[in-house]
Amino acid sequence: MEPQLLDTVHQERSPRTSFSHQSVPHTFRFLDGCLRKKRFNFHSQQLERKLTKLASRVEPEVTPYTGLIISPTLQYNFAESFTVKMKVFAEQFHKPVSFSCPAGTKVGYLIESLKPFLGNGEYVFKVTGYDEYLSCDSLLSDYEHVCACKRLDKDLWLTVVDRNLVPRNWQLCTRECCDLNIESDALDEPSFDHVKDRLLSFESTAEELLKDDAMVQKVCELVKNLCALLKATETSDLHQAVCDLRNFYADIAERRDDIGDAKKAFLVTQLLEEIEKCIARLIGLYSYKRAVDFQVEFSEERLTVDVSEHLCLKVKMLQQLQKGWVNNFDMFRIVACVVYGERAIAKKETRNVYVTKKFFSCANFEETVDFKELSVHSLPREARLYLTVMGRRDGHDDVVGWTGTNLFNDPGHFNGGEFLLGLWPPTVSSVNGPASGNENNMGSIHFELPYDNHVKIPLKSPNTERKAFTELDNETQRLFEDLMTDDPSKPLNQSVRAKLWEHRRHLCDHASLLPHFLSLPTAYTAENIEETYALLHLWNPLTPEEALALFTPSYPDSTVRKYAVQCLQSLGSDDLSLYLPHLVESLKYESWDDSHLALFLLQRARTCVRLAHQLYWLLKGMIEEPLMRTRVRLMIKALTFIAGEKVADSVRRQTNLDSALADIALKVKGAADPEKTLRQGLARVDQSLREGSVTLPFDPALSVSEIDVEACCVFPSKTLPMKVAFRPTDSDAEKFETIYKVGDDLRQDMFVLNVMRLMDKLWLESGLDLRMLTFKCTATGKNRGILEAVRNVSTLRHIQTQYLGVTGSFNTRTIADWLLKQHPEPTSYHRAVDNFVRSCAGCCVATYILGVGDRHNDNILLATSGHMLHIDFGKVLGKAETLGGIRRDRAPVALTPDMVYVIRKNGSDAQFVRLCCDAYNVVRRNAGVFLSLFKIMTFSGVGDITGQAIGYLHRSMALDKTDAEAARYFEKRIRESVATLATSINFLIHNIASLGHQTRECAMKLSFNPKEFSVASEGRIVALSVEDLKLRYHPERYYVFVVRVTRQFPPAQKVMRTYKQFLELYGKMSKRFAECQFYPLSRGPVFGSESDESLALKRKKDIALFLDSVMAQSEHVAHYRLIYSFFHPLPKDTEAVPGAAIRIVT
């Protein structure tokens, strides 16, 4: 299949329709009711009304930047003042302007300073390469991007644009109509037209039956055919009604009933009315909880019962029996369980029943299950009913399947009536989403709950008053003070629970005790719920971070969850994005689709484009989860309405790009020549991108319009990830490199990276800058996604093996020598070492707490700026790779001799330990946040994040220790890691296993300058000339060649390179462009000397001819990124230049 063009509109499948006259409602012939096109279910209607009101009430604030994306800001003050090195582009400048200024400079002041060179207009700064802007009312240091540039020692690139000429790409434009109707995606689901045709056939044949007794068999067959159309579903009443009709005519045929024609017609009409009534009820049952396009409306009033009665369930029939069930089991029974949150509050069973035959094979129960201990009035409004089918043979029971439903439609309406709910297989866990039935027709249960009109909605008690904590005795106060620091998810013993409830009114001054109080089952009984709601509003409010605990499945009450949502209102959009994956996951634990959390997320998505895109892809990542599929599809429809048409169009185009890349990745996996297949596929995507730009899934501010196909490659790892280099629509920007993977569940990587960003935020807020470097990652579907490729980094394996081979992991100097090579100047080198020490400390703490495994040296990267970062988080929470049953990750943290050498050589070992211990304690002091986040993710189905996560984090964060004890504990873990050779041995094993694995990407990097540069970053080269050669000693005599590099904008630069470096450039260019004819550079005579002047003069001529042949090539060859990386000025090149570069300083 060819990749989809990017301008293809990605939509839900259009509803099944035939001729328009067939969509007209059909009135039943024998009863008062009709079959009609289906409207939304109850909560879709509720959500639609709420969204329509929300769209009219919530509008983005009108500012000069309305319709633009503001660059993310920091919610804390950067610990130190610093100077920003800037490079500013503008149409009015003939070349970029470079200058430096304090980070505390107001953005508007800089704009005013540049105005004399810009002319008239209202100007703003845009981050070069991104469609995001800096507000003139802010400071440079307010922005995350500015501080990131400082931490990475990068220049800040900004473009000046006239605000009035900038297209408002994100101006909110909402459709008038909100359509939340979703179609079933079950295979061969019947449509309105199919059902209507069968009804018409039945009714016309029934009319004929009144005149012709011979039609009785056909009527019976038509009823069975209608049942077959509804996936072999039936009811006992319908089967009995058909039997009654058949028996009536049998009696007449055998002359047992001698009646006149008028009476016969009357009786037959009554029998047919009963059959059609049963048919209508079956169709209504089938359509009620399914996303089909038909429903039945009755004119008759529903029956009601006294809501104070106890809960009574009537189990009628188990049907759609699968062949394997009938073959494997003799009998079936049903276990009914009422669940609230994570607790089962009542459980009953039916008798065992043998399989019988009606229209189809079934197990006919017709049994009442009475929960005498539960009154409908006293049930929690979020209670759910689960029915589990057990199969029995030879005394052994097995779970066949299960289904579930909410017992209340909302806090004021009991969910009474008849139900026909499909079964989920045992492999689907009921905790992974809302209580619902399966639409795939793999077995179903017909049951009935009592009808009702209305139940009382619990309100907060008006007579509740708070009391002073100091009124408690000292021992009780100490008990609660200790409880304040405990994990709310930790079970409390009976005595503590009793004291919490007894002294509840004395605890309202301490917000951290509220989650403990709200975990008490006693708080939700019918007699206490009103007081609980009152205390909820009297209690001191929770911070947004503390409120995260209330989004776990332990707190199902909708009023409590509404309170938690209210606590999040103060979060800014950039902070909210950190918690968004967990809040989306928490939608699983909401009882109803129109929950307060769902509306909150949609409301914030309406006011922030970034949140809208992030929310879309998080929802898309859950769409394959069986229990969440319907809710997620509903949320996506709601999102595309509430966030506006421009966001909807953007995510459609992103989805099409993702589908095209996924298709290419699958072809690459099965290709004999993966590189060729990759380039052919990307060339087609590149062509469609040129016809219309697309924003990338992980950042709506990053708009791309081309793919640099020649810069793309396939990595030789297990899943064959693809490096895809995009060119931004901003011509001044450097290309943006990504990695696209199919075959790995990137949700775990996304989650771990998010947690690391949160750790870094907490460290910075506490004044601890560990120079953490992370990257963007978005899971775009099941086992696929896109990641940001970090620039100017090398794997630790490449560094360790570059000169010393597979044993390089045991050498102590590899990292130090590599850093010195990148930073020959002492000041730059010490800055890189400081970056290394700090980021290494941050990585050690983060990977230890999260239990990150599989830490071989291809999963640890070093940036040329000295920053360390980890990638590939496929093993976390103590899971590790093994070799022959032996755990490969043996050390507490990955600290190798070459890392320790850098730390100790520069006298930073005490600083390193202090940084680690301080960072460890900062995380521990915020342990509640991390425990809540992992508790929410417990049932996500993401990799290693399971029910054991909380216990692991308790141990890894040493929560039973004081700060001083924890610092000594972590220092001991560091010393264990330094003392062991296990990590180096693990690296050696990986080095041997990776022999011969090198990507085209690595082959195209220069050994003496692995950083990559391009036309955009350096300026276009128009001429290269070899001007001189110089003699050097190091320690032997050798010559260097001085090359004058003339660029599009003056001044020209001079660089010095050795002949060996020119040979490397020649070899890589010849390999990359085998079809091009470059002037050859020879290695010279075997016994030639590098100090031979005559040889050097000859080489000077050869180099000049080689450079001329390069510049004479076509555009993509002459300006290939390797040329710009080769001629990028290095610190030693200053010797060839008489003066330093001029820079404007303000």
From TrEMBL:
InterPro entries on file: ARM-type_fold, C2_domain_sf, Kinase-like_dom_sf, PI3/4_kinase, PI3/4_kinase_cat_dom, PI3/4_kinase_cat_sf, PI3/4_kinase_CS, PI3K-type_C2_dom
Molecular function in Gene Ontology: 1-phosphatidylinositol-3-kinase activity; 1-phosphatidylinositol-4-phosphate 3-kinase activity; ATP binding; phosphatidylinositol binding
Residues covered by the PX domain: 1019-1134
Gene3D superfamilies given in the database record: 3.10.20.770, C2 domain (2.60.40.150), Phosphatidylinositol 3-/4-kinase, catalytic domain (1.10.1070.11), Phosphatidylinositol 3-kinase Catalytic Subunit, Chain A, domain 4 (3.30.1010.10), Phosphatidylinositol 3-kinase, accessory domain (PIK) (1.25.40.70), Phox-like domain (3.30.1520.10)
E.C. number(s) listed in UniProt: 2.7.1.137
Keywords: ATP-binding, Kinase, Lipid metabolism, Nucleotide-binding, Transferase
SMART domains in the record: PI3K_rbd, PI3Ka, PI3Kc, PX
Reactions listed under catalytic activity: a 1,2-diacyl-sn-glycero-3-phospho-(1D-myo-inositol) + ATP = a 1,2-diacyl-sn-glycero-3-phospho-(1D-myo-inositol-3-phosphate) + ADP + H(+)
Region ranges (Disordered): 1-20
Gene Ontology BP annotations: cell migration; phosphatidylinositol 3-kinase/protein kinase B signal transduction; phosphatidylinositol-mediated signaling
Family: Belongs to the PI3/PI4-kinase family.
Protein name: phosphatidylinositol 3-kinase
Organism: Ornithodoros erraticus
Organism lineage: Eukaryota, Metazoa, Ecdysozoa, Arthropoda, Chelicerata
